[in-house]
Description:
The protein is mainly α. The protein has helices at about 1-30, 35-65, 75-125. Helix 1 runs antiparallel to helix 2 (about 35-65) and helix 1 (about 1-30) packs parallel to helix 3 (about 75-125). The longest helix is centred in the C-terminal third of the chain and has 51 residues, at about 75-125. The chain is rod-shaped.
Amino acid sequence: MEQLLELLHDKKKKINQIWAITLQKSEVIQALDTDKLEILLGKRQALMNEVDETDHQILSVKNALLSTEIDPAKDQSVLLLENDIKDIIKQIIDQDKENKLKLNQELSVVRKHLKSIKEKKAVLLSYGAKQKQRYGAFIDKKK
């Protein structure tokens, strides 16, 4: 049972780190710093992979406890930790939805800008190619 509690504490710690990165992501999105956003996404993905590994370990420990007729689902400390983890994950999901909305708004602004650039390019091309001057232009100052 101690091993299960230790794994759950480890998972909660990693989920809290993901929550902190999610909040940082929100600030970076406001600042429109794509380089930092990419770094944060990489860190977050690494933590999510670690959480997946911890989940597999938790599942194997729970199965081992069930085989010894100990039900970890009835332990109050296990339930409390699992509920805490679920609450943090809900907060992360809500913040991610806000971040996605902000990113979609920025994406629409960029799309509009690109569309206006394409329209301007089409207008310029419709007048034909610019004529290259083959002979030098001289200004007659003696008149």
